[in-house]
Every structure is written in C-alpha cells, then in structure tokens.
Design brief:
By secondary structure, this protein is α/β, with parallel strands linked by helices. The protein contains eight helices and twelve strands.
C-alpha cells in the first residue's frame, strides 16, 4: 500500500510540473541555475554583463552546474529552471547541460535564447520561449503548447524591438493555450527585495493556466503569499544558495 501511495504522489507531482490539467494545492519551488561561460553565476537585476560566478553558497563549493544539479536532487528537487546565458547572450548553447540534467534524473525548463524557438521539448527538457526573443507580440499566438516567459523589465514586458504594458500582452495570451506561463521580474532577480505581489495578482486574475513566478523571492513568507494568490510554482536561486529555502513544496 505504501508503495502504491508513493507512486501516486510522484505521478501527481509530475503532472503539476508538466502543466497538465491537475494543479496542486501546494506551491512548488523550482531552483534556478544561471550559467555563463559554463559555470553557475549569481544573477542580479537582469544586468547580465555583471553576473559573476556564485560564491558563498551553502549548496556547492565550486560553481559547477553538474555539482549543483546533484545537490538539488539530493535535497528532493525534481525540476529546475536553467538560464543558459551563453546561448541567450552569444548564441553559444551549452549542449552538455541537457545531458547532465538527464544523467542526474531531473527535468528542466531551459531558456537557451532565440534558438529555443526552433527546438522541440523532450522527456527531460522543456524549452522556454522568452518574450524578449519575439519581434512582435502577435508571435505569441503561434506558441500554443509551449512554455512562455513574460520578461518584465522597468515595468514593461520586453520584446525584441519594443516593450509593452502587461495588460496588453495578457489580452493576447488569453487567446492561446500555453503549456505554462512564467513571469520573471528581471529588475528583482537576485535582489532579495520580495516579489511584486500586486502585479502578480493581476496576472493571476487574467490567466488561469499553470503559472510560475520568479524574481525577488526571499523567504518562506513570500512563497506562502504567492501560494495564496494562486501561483503554482516559484523560481528561486539566491534564497536557496543562502540556505533560507531548502525544500520542494510549501
């Protein structure tokens, strides 16, 4: 009986992260791994040119992506979000990362830059399409079944050639069935300032699908407030490396 319950719980957890119809009453923590020049870096406020290798982490001694994946797996995490900044900034994708994810036995949402538009999802990897790679907001209508990230900076959703108000973008998103919607507040990433709860609440009120939030989350209190709003998963890096957050579900 215990084995059967364990299998059922695992099945439910996998359904949550894969974006199917069943949603959990718990909120899931998804660790973020930012990779630049092949090593794990500390992302701060979207200023990518200033990102430095991670230091003083309670999780790892060296900024090695493989070491971090193994440690997160040991802690009970099953899924991660990976920003391949070499792919995003220089179109030089770290193609060894999906192999590492699979070897560790995890799943990942991966942002590899504009080339992610041309890649198909696999059993272990879902490729994230960020709005910053789209030339027009109308291109969102072609992304049914994909994982899409609203890349917010300076209060606007960033696209390749312009930025738009969130309400306008949400009106377009409501016309397409996305697999998952991510909201990443780049101004708050790595700052420990806390999430923009009012804005996140507005998005949740307009979007009923699987909703994942990242940027500024600093505490269990922040996570529980996001849970109360109806957020399904939260992306966290800094608070994990500081030892403030240390488990998968809340």
């Amino acid at each position: 009986m215990d084995k059967g319950i364990s299998i059922l719980r695992r099945s439910i957890d996998e359904t949550i992260i894969r974006g199917d119809e069943v949603l959990s009453e718990r909120i899931e923590v998804i660790p973020v791994i930012d990779i630049l020049n092949g090593v794990v870096v500390h992302a701060v406020a979207g200023r990518r040119e200033e990102y430095k290798p991670i230091r003083d982490s309670v999780l790892i001694r060296q900024p090695d992506p493989g070491e971090l994946l193994v440690r997160l797996k040991e802690m009970g995490f099953e899924s991660v979000y990976i920003a391949d900044l070499d792919g995003i900034m220089y179109n030089k994708v770290n193609d060894n990362i999906p192999r590492l994810v699979e070897e560790v036995g995890m799943r990942a949402m991966m942002d590899i830059g504009i080339s992610g538009l041309r890649r198909s999802d696999t059993e272990h990897i879902e490729y994230v399409v960020g709005t910053e790679y789209l030339r027009t907001v109308e291109q969102l209508l072609d992304l049914s079944g994909r994982v899409v990230s609203l890349d917010m900076i300076h209060g606007k959703v960033k696209f390749a050639k312009y930025s738009l108000d969130i309400d306008y973008v949400l009106n377009v998103i409501k016309q397409v069935h996305l697999r998952k919607l991510l909201f990443i507040d780049l101004d708050r990433v790595g700052t420990m300032q806390g999430p923009n709860l009012e804005l996140i609440k507005r998005i949740r009120n307009e979007y009923s699908g699987l909703f994942i939030v990242g940027g500024g989350v600093r505490s269990v209190k922040d996570i529980l407030q996001l849970k109360e709003i109806g957020v399904n998963c939260v992306l966290i890096a800094t608070a994990l490396h500081k030892g403030i957050i240390d488990k998968r579900f809340y």
